[in-house]
Amino acid sequence: MQRLKKLANDFWRHYGYHHGHVVVRNRPAVFAIESTNHCNLRCVMCPRGEPDIMERALGTMSDSLFEKILNDAEYFTEPCWFHWFGEPLMHPRLFEQIELAKSRGVPNLGISSNGTLLDATRARSILDSPLDTLMIAIDGTSKEVYERVRISPTFTFEEVVENAHGFLSLKASLGRRKPHTILSIIRMQETQDQLDEFRSFWLAAGADEVIYKDYTSWGNQSGDFLELATVPIRESLRRQREFPCSYLWESLVIGWDGRVVPCCFDYDAKSTMGDVTTQSLREIWNGDAYRTLRRKELDGSNDSPLCVGCSQAPGHPRNLIWPIPLPAARSLHPR
Length: 335
Known about the structure:
Layout: H1 2-18, E1 30-33, E2 42-43, H2 63-70, E3 80-81, H3 94-103, E4 109-113, H4 120-128, E5 133-137, H5 143-149, E6 150-151, H6 157-174, E7 180-186, H7 195-205, E8 209-213, H8 231-237, E9 251-254, E10 259-261, E11 274-275, H9 281-285, H10 288-299
Parallel strand pairs: 1-3, 1-9, 3-4, 4-5, 5-7, 7-8
Antiparallel strand pairs: 2-6, 9-10, 10-11
């Protein structure tokens, strides 16, 4: 049944995009809830890191707000990421909220962690929880590269690798299949020569999957991130997008304070589509703000601070004779 719902949702997502609908029948295909935007690293590729250009207030999602969001369970997609900016393991009630989400029927709940706090106690807590997916983000296979990218006066490369190894070993010794464990690395100047080594190392250590994440310049809202990209990606980031951004037909991100934005690039929530403290997801998804932004994107007048300079927006030539082969919605970029 869940697979049939996903296939139907994918059909209406593509149909609405290609036919230029500003009111859509599908639910979001990229869905994320920010557990917290507190973080204990200052990563060079992150607006929350170094340089720290994020101006949003710091906080954690309350139980009451999280439960209100769960009331709109029909909007949850697979996977639902319980992070955006920040380190989820810093949320003091993370595991209680994971339990609540799964008890309310969220089909595939995932978090992305930088691994710094993944000690033996938290590793066991994760493995004893109903969490479906865990992504561990470690950028580099050497101390020199990792500590230039993920800056910290406290946590070392060796400690993070030991934490990830310990988690994978404990999972294997307990015979647990969940959470599906992904090790991730971002393609960037510092890491591009270590990608193959990273894959081999973590697959051998027991990771279920290893992924290379595309580097992002966060919609080119700031010039601070362009030079960290590899040369081919850097050139593509300087181009204007050619097609309407499909994120406006498939993506919904909820900040820790309840504000909703259409895209994970919107680190300061400048393009707020609504607020779940006072609105339902149903009201927001086809509300005035989303409809206006979709219409502007279609007619080429989208001048929002988030979108006006973005060159990484996913999109396709619009084709009214549908269906045609199209890629699935991209996963939320989790730092």
